[in-house]
């Protein structure tokens, strides 16, 4: 059957089915990226694969393309499972699978925390072709939903770990073991790992022996990733800011002539900071949304939709938004809080300057952050320039008093609503909270 033909350099020449090439073309995706060119033919040959490429390089299609091609040759039962650390990323991947396979009546189940367990169980009983899940929620179904619901997982042909470096940390060990335990043995399925950071755990998998009778693992990293940790189109700057007036500087930047129209993500380290900033900026008439683990799932989904549709210009987020999310219009990323892990800076900055577009990243540097900034500069092999668009006198004259008043009102409202009490109860019930939510 000649369904996989194509001219040199396009998806058809990599072995992707003709119907899928048409689907990609309808989505205006015609030229494969480096990781797609390298991995798609090898996955189609039946090889396990570890793919490392910086964020925004097209990793999802690198695994979705060959999986959908193989599925369309024999579209039966549960065919593939994709595991990923955050709900938002799972939703994005499920949307891509659904869009790519829409002409073939594909059935994709999204299995994440914050949604109805009963509805998900009903979906799983219908034997969807692809399951995109966070490990915590899929593990719950494996342990509690019965064989008629999850029995189809025993015959899947593909397992994908997306953002594998996070999934292979201690946070996910138990849930991942439960999920993988119900799947066919390693040698009877194809295992695909994709990551923007090749950690020691990923390297250990690269060097593990290949099961007998199985083709050798294919491992691919886009041009020594460490040297190109951030794209050349990303401008990186820092701003020295006294801790107690960070909100005023943020407001001054977001409303300055240079950035008043810019789409921006503000990254913070704690959910309470995200909530204070969201309320404060809202009081000051900035179109703002937030994304953090304490929000109900429907609110998290609505925030992302509002930001993607530009109904909100600014998204305040914890690191649930630092991984993989593709929001093409982001022009500015501000590290309001700097992470202790330099790789987190790379993932956060990766929300802008995607697919060849330009973008800007600003780090707010308080007194205790200097060593963290130096670690980031070492990691990205580049010195940051000082941000000079906003000056102390302008902040004091224009922003400080009204921002302080708005923050005070926000804190009073949060106290009245007992913000954070639910989280404390949840933590007491489940033991200490880990960095990423498990479901």
Draw up the topology in text.
Elements: H1 18-26, H2 34-44, E1 49-52, H3 59-73, E2 80-83, H4 87-100, E3 108-111, H5 117-125, E4 130-133, H6 135-144, H7 147-150, E5 158-162, H8 164-167, H9 173-181, E6 190-195, H10 200-206, E7 218-221, E8 234-240, H11 246-254, E9 264-267, H12 271-283, E10 288-291, H13 297-308, E11 314-317, E12 332-335, H14 342-349, E13 359-365, H15 370-380, E14 385-386, H16 392-416, H17 421-430
Helix pairs in contact: 2-3, 3-4, 6-9, 11-16, 12-16, 14-15
Description:
The chain starts with 17 loop residues before the first helix and ends in a 9-residue tail after the last helix. The protein is of the alpha/beta class and 439 residues long. The protein has two domains: 12-225, P-loop containing nucleotide triphosphate hydrolases (Rossmann fold); 229-419, 3-Layer(aba) Sandwich (Rossmann fold), CATH 3.40.50. Strand 3 (108-111), helix 5 (117-125) and strand 4 (130-133) form a beta-alpha-beta unit. The chain is globular and about 70 Å long. It contains 17 helices and 14 strands. 46% of the residues are buried. GO terms for molecular function: ATP binding; hydrolase activity; RNA binding; RNA helicase activity. Residues 430-439 have a biased composition (Basic and acidic residues). Residues 9-37 form the DEAD-box RNA helicase Q domain. This is RNA helicase.
